[in-house]
Amino acid sequence: MTGSANSPWAKASASDRSSLLSPSLVYSISDEADLVVGAMLAFGPRPKAREYEVAVQMPLPPEDGVCVEGAPSMGAPLPYPELKSEFGTYPNIYFGEVKFYF
Length: 102
What we know:
By secondary structure, this protein is mostly beta strands. The protein is built from no helices and six strands. A hairpin with a 4-residue loop joins strand 1 and strand 2. The protein is elongated.
């Protein structure tokens, strides 16, 4: 039974100084089996939630059996993300796997 660290890989965005790092460890359970654990870690400013209102065409109740389009009215505020960086939008991911060889 032996253990080792896989060489981690990394990506970086020079324009917004965000990055993605993926370290992992391999533990040899036996000659035919490995246990692998690792992560994908994102660094950088996270998105911020903003809100804006949308003009919505609301039909008025029918008059004399004819549906009349109404004037635009303001709808409910809708959230949208304001992106701050490329890799800051990624979640941190943790994983594990068991490998069997035969």
